[in-house]
Amino acid sequence: CFLPTLGPQDLYLFNEGNEHRVYEKLGAHVRDLGGVAGVSFAVWAPAAARVSVVGNFNHWDGRYHPMRPLGSSGVWELFIPGLGEGELYKYEIRDQRGHVRLKTDPYGTYFEGPPNNAAIVCDPRKFHWTDAAWLEKRRAQARQPDRPMAIYEVHLGSWKRVAEDADRPLTYREMAPQLAEYALEMGFTHIEVMPIAEHPFDGSWGYQVTGFYAPTHRYGTPEDFAWFVDYLHGRGLGVILDWVPAHFPRDSFALAEFDGTHLYEHADPRQGAHMDWGTLIFNYGRNEVRCFLVANALAWLDRYHLDGLRVDAVASMLYLDYSRKEGQWIPNRYGGRENLEAIDFLRRVNDLVHH
Questions:
Q1: If 0-12 CB within 10 Å is exposed, 13-18 middle and 19+ buried, where does residue 176 land?
Q2: Over the stretch 155-164, which tens digit does the pLDDT of each residue have?
Q3: Rounded to whole angstroms, how far apart are CA atoms 216 and 222?
């Protein structure tokens, strides 16, 4: 009985690959619709026969909350009254062959820790920022492209640990003061955090991402990560994120074969399988996939006030024959080895990030 939370213009721009703030439309969002509080859910699964929202609130039973498809956009949507922050949820997707799979939200902002992997309804914008002076200084520095920079790269999970507490890593809030003090003492201007988007396997050091829009639960909540950035800005330090748009893991609960088809990845392993890391390669030529990744870059800057992105594994994106032998790759339309779609994607990200 509730109208869709996405309009025709939203869907048109998404299918065209130009909805740069699609993260405000897809995913789970706490909303008030006509005085009724609840959560709106939206997910892209064009080949699905049915999509349902499942969680503790309906006993993980897909018969309770089936979503509705929005025209031919491939987007499924539903507003569920009475839900709020903290709810665990997934999408139950029935493919055209009748197979049912449980998937986490590609646009989820917070996740459970392994071995569980449900998304958690969370509003990353509720943090009260105090870094207005830093942002103004950053705008002024943009006119000084030759200013000196010294960047300290750090893996948050191993930089320091609490030996007396089962050798656990520091939290975002514990780490910020210590990291700021060390970086300033050593003369650094920026901190570059190795990937902190949600990932299931500690041994990947964050380079095999399953939650592209979510700071990892390992060191706290999204609000805690915002506090981390805000604190470093307050001490005069910029924060750069190590961003991983080159590939994603094959974990069955995440992006791989999301709606029963090769949705985010190429179907042909000569294009879609990464030879070195056993992962899958994004289909940069698909508008909605490009939209997912472009918006992801912008979401980190928008939601968490980050000062830049370090893009991982660019060489593997640029060249179709990267780490492949003859016969293991498909040339571009000109017969060359350059991945023209990935090059166009990187150009677009650069342009929009600077804009």
A1: buried
A2: 999 999 999 9
A3: 8
